[in-house]
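Quick question: who can interpret this fold?

. . .
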Amino acid sequence: MQGELLRAGQSRPPEERLRPDRLRERLRGDCPVLLSQRLVLRAPHEEDIDALSHLANNANIATMVSRMPHPYTAKDAADFVRRTKDGGIGKCVYAITNGENGAFLGCCALEPHADGRTLEIGYWLGEPYWNQGYATEAAHALVDMAFRTRTNIDHIDARCRVTNVASKRVVQKCGFQFQGSGMVESLALGGMIAVEWFRLDRKTWMSLRSWGDLR
């Protein structure tokens, strides 16, 4: 079953995933398609639903992020894709996909704070794609896009569950600095979880934007 679901996402050739009409559609807004060494970050599509629901239906993921229910169904995935189309001012939600074969790997997002000067970054990857550097690569692409295209943004925040060592390693590789601790509600656990708050400011990003020393 897993192979069938993933092949459905992989069957679309690169020229279809990046065909000009889709590129133009995204580039007209403030959430452009992002290309990195191995990844394409683009808007979630209906054809992602099967792979999305399969990968996200994993307690090891849901218990580490605050807004993901568990179990995670095809209906949850379809609702998520629909909500991303509705969008929101300043908010960008991306499907993380393999740049060579189009496989859906996970999701990432930037969401604005009410102060108008801060964005919050979030991300998750399907468990088969852990420990391969994809989350760090996607986070680099999001951070670079945010600071380069949004001159009003001074800070990007990230919140990681205290026990999520891998996620904390990602934000630290991107130059984020620890700010403090707190509690947030977890949909999957039905209660509050302890998180750590990290922040990257524009000045630090400018000094590290080549990312060469952080890889």
Observations:
- The domain at 2-154 is CATH 3.40.630.30 (Aminopeptidase).
- Residues 1-28 have pLDDT under 50 and may be disordered.
- The chain has one domain: 2-154.
- The beta strands are 34-35, 39-42, 92-98, 104-112, 118-125, 155-161, 177-186, 191-201.
